[in-house]
Amino acid sequence: MGTERTKIITHIATARSWLAANSRWVLILTLILALIFPFSVKTYILSLGIEVLIFAIFAMSLDLLLGYTGLPSLGHAAFFGLGAYILAYVSSNSELALGLTDNLLITLPIVILGTALSAVILGFLALRTSGVFFLMITLAFAQMLFSIAIRWSSVTGGSDGMTGVPRPTLGIGTWHLSFTDRADFYYLVLAFFCITWFLLRYIVRSPFGLALRGIHANEQRMRGLGYNTFRYKFTAFIVSGVIAGIAGMLLSQYFWHAVPHNLFWNMSGQALIMVVVGGPGTLTGPVIGATLMRLLPNFASTYTELSETLMGLVLILFVLLAPGGIFGIFHKKR
């Protein structure tokens, strides 16, 4: 048994060393595969790929709070759903909406400003608490928005949500680019995913990101060193909320509607599970977690009626055997 365990650890260490030495080529190969993905799969698989990328953006935004800053939020769906509703209100052809434009150059800044403003308001109140109190305040805020979305039917469409959300366009003057086709929309989502990944990678490796890690490890010591920890957490909270809002915007454009379910607490729970399963404190971990949590139920349901039970068993095994997530296994073995 000891010999087998040593062999497994050796193989994992060898694989990790190879990935570290060839990370640039692995990244290039991954991008090439992502670019040819729409031409090599069926429509259903392409649809799943779009969903995975959108929820990976959502999970990475939460990881900035949970994994790097140490802020466990159960209300992150508030920004996810709000981004969807803001986009729907601006671009939808529904009689409830303004229906101004579907031009991404206009709708994207509006979504960013709207979600940033909501993150400022919530962050100013919630970040004065910590631990379970922070978790409960964020949860209450998301549930409040969910209740408003359900009851204020004259504005939000009630439980049916807002329909008629168009796929985005991109245009300046006479130049015009449409993303109505599924493959074209995939490339748009892929571009947002890459921008988000590289942006967050830059943030977490910057002095600002190192300060967030310090706050996660020991906030009192960081205060003693002269850091304004509230300002750092406040900034991270806003950035996280804006990215979650962009993910919600993309989801509403993909499914052509914005629904109250995107504001419900179980959507925050899904993002939290994605981060925990993949590995908090890593940008790759949430992507792995989002891939597993979106693909496994779909494929399991085709083979068994007990897909939900299977998902529960998988989560229990991760908690017991890999508390640091899938990506954390390599760090632990190292």
Overview of this structure, please?
There is one protein chain. The protein has a domain at 47-263. It has 15 helices and 4 strands. It is globular, with a radius of gyration of 21 Å. Helix content is 75%, strand content 4%. The protein is mainly alpha-helical and 334 residues long. A two-stranded antiparallel sheet has the order 1-4. Strand 2 (169-172) and strand 3 (175-178) form a beta hairpin. The protein has helices spanning 2-21, 23-40, 43-66, 77-91, 104-126, 131-151, 153-156, 182-205, 207-217, 219-224, 229-255, 265-278, 284-301, 307-321, 325-333; strands at 162-163, 169-172, 175-178, 257-258.
List the helices and strands and how they pair.
Elements: H1 2-21, H2 23-40, H3 43-66, H4 77-91, H5 104-126, H6 131-151, H7 153-156, E1 162-163, E2 169-172, E3 175-178, H8 182-205, H9 207-217, H10 219-224, H11 229-255, E4 257-258, H12 265-278, H13 284-301, H14 307-321, H15 325-333
Antiparallel strand pairs: 1-4, 2-3
Helix pairs in contact: 3-8, 3-11, 3-12, 3-13, 4-5, 4-6, 4-11, 5-11, 8-9, 9-11, 12-13, 12-15, 13-14, 13-15
